[in-house]
């Protein structure tokens, strides 16, 4: 086979990178080139590849350095036994692409991952070199996210954090047994050990910057990870428990969930069908409850069905409320913030508006309706000046009343 052109390589390696969901670009230090130095900025508008928490669209060049790999993870399309077209960039090519795309206003940053070629250390050295060229030779001040390799030397991972805004290490699967079965070349203890080292490096460098003005930054946007959903027998309860331990143990910015997708020439140990995408969505909702709504992992697990999985027809917050109806109804004029956050249909913004409004007036049902999308979902769980749900909260068919109506959409409907 002849040598591939840069465009052909880009087509192969950009497509191969689509399975990695953890490409958000939020939380980094603000950098720009407005003073005439350097190129790029971490703050801007562009083609949407990811969303920041404040709603900004962030464009990222999301590619693999190479899709060659010496590992044979069953679920990975780039595993060594997979029959896929292979390609490989040099660090200079990645840097040149990034700068070229930035100058055309296509992107604002780089998300770089890779298969393992030759060895973990060699691959990590190549990825660090990509970031070094961008930062030192081009003075690039845009966003860089490096997917690090837990088997690599810790010093190489440390160098990656000095150049990157965010680093991430994928835990891959929620259970150790699943990882052993589906990714025999990987080790759960080694992965968590690498995450622990990144956590300590972040804390150490933050402390150094408090004492020394010009101390270098280390991964200012923190670290994240990703778990594959549906490749093994792990339940949603297993996944949420793992996510909670990772948040608590390693101070992660995000845990991403990626629904398993069947791949060509798949291993016989993998499921034949992908899990429903709504399952991935429910896991993100449960993750949101733990991060922003004050739920403990065990409480979100209580919303699961008998098989340990979250219901697909209703969201986890409503599922929890229906199981613990004795906690409701809540008086919107008196209930504390942490309890109002548990009312189905009231988000963080809505609760904040309720708390602000009730300082000035006694709230009626119509007042609550102005801050929520669906007052019908809220009514069974609240008391207002002119509203009391009486027996509505205890109705046996309440779940049926509140579950979103299933609608068959037409492909060619106007």
TrEMBL record:
<dbReference type="GO" id="GO:0046872">
    <property type="term" value="F:metal ion binding"/>
</dbReference>
<keyword id="KW-0949">S-adenosyl-L-methionine</keyword>
<feature type="domain" description="Elp3/MiaA/NifB-like radical SAM core">
    <location>
        <begin position="59"/>
        <end position="286"/>
    </location>
</feature>
<dbReference type="InterPro" id="IPR006638">
    <property type="entry name" value="Elp3/MiaA/NifB-like_rSAM"/>
</dbReference>
<dbReference type="InterPro" id="IPR013785">
    <property type="entry name" value="Aldolase_TIM"/>
</dbReference>
<protein>
    <submittedName>
        <fullName>Putative DNA modification/repair radical SAM protein</fullName>
    </submittedName>
</protein>
<keyword id="KW-0479">Metal-binding</keyword>
<dbReference type="InterPro" id="IPR051675">
    <property type="entry name" value="Endo/Exo/Phosphatase_dom_1"/>
</dbReference>
<dbReference type="GO" id="GO:0003824">
    <property type="term" value="F:catalytic activity"/>
</dbReference>
<keyword id="KW-0408">Iron</keyword>
<dbReference type="InterPro" id="IPR023874">
    <property type="entry name" value="DNA_rSAM_put"/>
</dbReference>
<dbReference type="InterPro" id="IPR010994">
    <property type="entry name" value="RuvA_2-like"/>
</dbReference>
<dbReference type="InterPro" id="IPR058240">
    <property type="entry name" value="rSAM_sf"/>
</dbReference>
<dbReference type="GO" id="GO:0051536">
    <property type="term" value="F:iron-sulfur cluster binding"/>
</dbReference>
<dbReference type="InterPro" id="IPR007197">
    <property type="entry name" value="rSAM"/>
</dbReference>
<keyword id="KW-0411">Iron-sulfur</keyword>
